[in-house]
Design brief:
The structure holds three protein chains of three kinds.
Chain A lengths: L1 E4 L9 E7 L6 E2 L4 E6 L4 E5 L4 E6 L6 E3 L3 E6 L44 H9 L18 H10 L9 H22 L2 E9 L1 H13 L8 H15 L5 E4 L2 E4 L5 E3 L1 E2 L5 E2 L2 E2 L7 H17 L2 E2 H5 L3 E5 L18 E5 L3 E7 L2 E15 L5 H16 L5
Parallel strand pairs in A: 5-16, 12-17, 17-18
Antiparallel strand pairs in A: 1-8, 2-4, 2-7, 3-6, 4-5, 6-8, 9-20, 10-11, 12-15, 13-14, 18-20, 19-20
Helix pairs in contact in A: 1-2, 5-8
Chain B lengths: L1 E3 H15 L3 E5 L15 H5 L4 E3 L4 H13 L3 E8 H4 L3 H8 L2 H4 L9 E6 L14 H4 L6 E3 L4 H12 L5 E6 L6 E3 L13 E4 L4 E5 L3 H14 L4 E5 L2 E3 L3 H11 L2 E8 L4 H13 L8 E5 L8 H7 L3 H12 L1
Parallel strand pairs in B: 2-3, 2-4, 4-5, 5-7, 6-7, 10-11, 10-13, 13-14
Antiparallel strand pairs in B: 1-8, 6-12, 9-11
Helix pairs in contact in B: 1-8, 3-5, 9-13, 10-11
Chain C lengths: L4 H17 L14 H5 L3 H15 L14 H12 L1
Helix pairs in contact in C: 1-3, 1-4
């Protein structure tokens, strides 16, 4: 048996709402297929299944909000017998068990006006998760406290499905999640910042020639050169391609570039381009284009939201010259690109106009030092001077 | 096989002496008298006076001698008759045994095992009824074990002798005459984890040593009222297996800690703090403690009983939590 | 410049394509002589998608060097009209 769990789609996600199942009980599913659509605070995400087999049980109902790690479905893998029903955890309101001890009728409200509600931490947590206001509940616990049982009873009698979020609510929540992740980053990560200015004349000349040969549907954007250069440079400085876990940096074998994409309604997401170091530019461009389109349509996949090992952000479109980025935890580095601008440049003793871009690095000083960060930027520069090698 | 706790300790001692020629036992009356609690009865005849050594009534001296022997390559088992007298050896324990590895930069190790009886309940009055294992659990550098079953009473000693650092084993004096069934399996038992002695879903009773049996009796009574209590035997007070006790609390959402020591500054307070730190949002009721009354333990039977944790106290504490 | 019926059709179709790329924009207020990128907050990816959409809708080849001519609504209409002659 394999369990399908509510995935964590980023460091800031603690729970998610099932929007719909993409498979029914009895359906065959292959590893990597979409099994469900899940609404995080940021967007509706298509979630891939990590096992192959038959969908045996669906334990969460559309509209239910459950914590990360909750078992949502059971997949029977090939060659396994059907199992007895598994009790869902956290999800379905538990049947109200016959009172273990005679419940004492408590007529007093759980707290009088103006005082803090008398409610157990576990009951408060569950009520918040399930979106019910505990103030209206009758407490049956010690000294009239509201307990888990009181909340589960209320849930059982009130099975209304959470209304879909309005655009404004979604915006507000996205702001909150970004706030939580960024505040955590600034609180926990000792950032250091480096920047360097790169001559882009070779890269742009190569790009113009290259795009001249490409049909309009296959043309490349300069951002893709940046992404590929960052991915290849990470092979030389692998400590920046890592995730911070339990007090230590764990290097990632694979290079998944999170690309910061601003959303038209405000806010941003940074979904991953998987194995960016191994993709050719045309393939990377197609995938990048698809990613931006789906990010803005709100149909990203779970692996795209959870797998990034570093983030690249480009603010040149807005005329920004230098980015001073905030690392997205648990990643340990972020690379920023500014606007490509014409500037006087000294080459062979002559001042000449050249298109240049300012490249910056925000990195976690617990994991790397300025020396390595500097080598990383130099490697990106070197790669962009040989665009044909990308 | 049914066996008394006392026989289980003796069986563990015998096995340890047979396995390793570096092992020897010393303490007050362990030889000719056979041990104050008769744990070493017969061992002098079997192993001779070189390995079963009677000592003068000087805890500081013979615990110190044990530390020296351990430094010199032996594997001493020192029996301090009871925890009450161990206070005379506290300097050796705290300032030497527990610190030498640290202070020598890892050059010296003290593979010493100290056993002692602990606890009240036998009408031996205020000077002979202390439960100070929680004090010892405060000290970094040592391991503190509280075997509550016959299997642990026999097997923990053998595992303790394999440790490179000092291990203190607290045997509740009330348990020596208790009979139990030895579990199957190898004689040495692991000393890293707590054990769930009874599975339940409504409340976790967290305890160790002599109080385990009171907790289990309380769980049986509660079951008759439809309350399923889970009983966790902590077994090892240092290093504490937080995961097992937290997993139980996360399941039941309620915890009662039972500790025969006085409430103030007790090990029960430590357990309660661990739960607050790591499982606060899982709690459905405040953590409750059942400890001894804050008095020197009385001599008269009815007052002694009133001062110590009882099955009835535990049942009442659980009922209060359930509202 | 006189507006032929054909130009009006072209204009409507271009606005529809823009609407797909920037669904939240109020296209009624669009100034036909000012760059879309400024008015609609289009980035280079959006603009590339727009060019691809024009290519597919009007069957015109748009070399990269001509991109500046497609930056405004009137520019696009003119380019499409030119491609028909």
């Amino acid at each position: 048996m394999a369990e399908f769990l509510m995935p964590t789609l980023g460091a800031d996600m603690t729970e998610g709402t099932l929007v719909q199942w993409k498979k029914r009980i009895g359906d065959r599913i292959a590893k990597g297929e979409i099994i469900a659509e899940v609404d995080t605070e940021k967007a509706a995400i298509e979630v891939e299944c990590h096992a192959s087999g038959i969908v045996e049980q669906l334990l969460t109902k559309p509209g239910d909000k459950v914590p990360v790690g909750t078992v949502m479905a059971i997949i029977r893998e090939a060659g396994q017998p059907a199992a007895a029903a598994v009790q869902p955890q956290h999800i379905a309101p538990q049947p109200v068990t016959p009172s273990r001890i005679p419940p004492v009728a408590k007529t007093a409200p759980a707290s009088s006006p103006g005082t803090r509600l008398r409610i157990s931490p576990a009951a408060r947590t569950l009520a918040a998760e399930r979106g019910i206001d505990p103030a209206g509940l009758q407490g049956t616990g010690p000294e009239g406290a509201i307990t888990l049982d009181d909340v589960t009873r209320a849930l059982a009698s009130d099975v209304k499905v959470t209304a879909p979020l309005t655009m404004a609510e979604r915006q507000a929540r996205m702001r909150q999640t970004i706030a939580a992740a960024m505040a955590r980053s600034k609180r926990e990560i000792p950032h250091y910042y480096l920047s360097t200015t790169i001559d882009m004349s070779r890269a742009l000349a190569w790009l113009t020639t290259e795009n001249g040969c490409r049909p309009v549907t296959e043309r490349l954007l300069v951002s893709v050169l940046f992404i590929k250069a960052v991915a290849l440079a990470l092979r030389q400085v692998p400590e920046l391609n890592a995730l911070w876990k339990d007090g230590d940096a764990v290097r990632s074998e694979r290079i998944h570039i999170g690309t910061a994409i601003s959303l038209r309604q405000g806010g941003l997401v940074a979904p991953a381009l998987h194995d960016a170091d191994r993709a050719d530019l045309g393939d990377l461009m197609q995938r990048f284009q698809d990613l931006v389109k789906r990010a803005r349509a709100g149909s990203l996949r779970s692996s795209e939201l959870s797998d990034a090992t570093i983030t690249v952000t480009s603010l040149g479109e807005q005329g920004v010259e230098t980015v001073f980025g905030v690392i997205y935890p648990p990643q340990v580095a972020l690379v920023g690109f500014g606007k490509v601008v014409e500037r006087p440049w000294v080459a062979d003793g002559q001042v000449v106009p050249r298109p240049v871009v300012t490249l910056s690095l925000s990195a976690d000083h617990r994991v790397s030092d300025g020396h390595r960060g500097g080598l990383f930027l130099a490697e990106i520069d070197r790669l962009l001077q040989e665009p044909q090698s990308l | 096989m049914n066996i008394t706790y006392r026989e289980a300790v003796r069986s563990g001692l015998r096995e340890a002496l047979q396995r390793d020629p570096r092992v020897f036992l010393m303490g007050e009356d362990v030889g000719k008298y056979g041990g104050t609690y008769a744990c070493s009865k017969g061992l002098l005849d079997e192993f001779g006076p070189e390995r079963i050594r009677d000592t003068p009534l000087s805890e500081s001296t013979f615990v110190g001698a044990g530390i020296g022997a351990a430094l010199g390559g032996m594997r001493p088992i020192v029996e301090v008759m009871t925890v009450n007298f161990s206070l005379l050896a506290l300097d050796q324990i705290m300032n030497n045994a527990a610190t030498l590895r640290h202070m020598s930069g890892g050059q010296f190790s003290v593979p010493l095992v100290v056993r002692m009886a602990t606890g009240a309940g036998r009408q031996v009055a205020a000077q002979h009824s202390h439960s100070l294992e929680g004090w010892y659990a405060h000290i970094p550098g040592i391991t503190v074990l509280t075997p509550a079953t016959v299997t642990d009473a026999r097997g923990m000693l053998l595992t303790a002798l394999e440790q490179p650092d000092p291990v203190f084993i607290f045997e509740h004096a009330y348990l020596y005459s208790m009979e139990g069934t030895l579990e199957e399996g190898p004689v040495p038992v692991e000393i890293s984890h707590a054990a769930v002695r009874r599975i339940g879903k409504d409340v976790s009773l967290l305890t160790f040593g002599g109080s385990l049996w009171k907790a289990l009796a309380a769980a049986t009574q509660l079951a008759q009222a439809g309350i399923e209590a889970e009983v966790v035997d902590l077994r090892v007070l240092r290093p504490l297996d937080r995961d097992t006790l937290l997993a139980s609390v996360r399941k039941t959402h309620r915890a009662v800690v039972i500790d025969e020591a006085w409430r103030t500054g007790s090990f029960a307070a430590e357990i309660s703090a661990v739960i607050m730190e790591q499982a606060f949002y899982e709690l459905d009721a405040p953590v409750a403690r059942v400890c001894s009354e804050e008095v020197p333990i009385p001599y008269p039977k009815h007052l002694e009983e009133a001062a110590l944790p009882s099955v009835e106290n535990i049942v009442q504490a659980v009922r209060r939590l359930l509202g | 410049m006189t507006t032929t019926p054909s130009d009006a059709d072209t204009r409507a179709q271009i606005l529809r394509l823009l609407g797909e790329i920037a669904p939240e924009a109020d296209l009624a207020c669009l100034n036909p002589d000012v760059s879309f990128r400024e008015q609609l907050d289009l980035d280079s990816m959006d603009f590339l998608n727009f060019v691809v959409a024009l290519h597919k809708a009007f069957h015109i080849e748009i070399p990269e060097t001509d991109y500046p001519k497609y930056m405004t609504l009137n520019g696009c209409v003119a380019q499409v009209a030119a491609s028909r002659t």
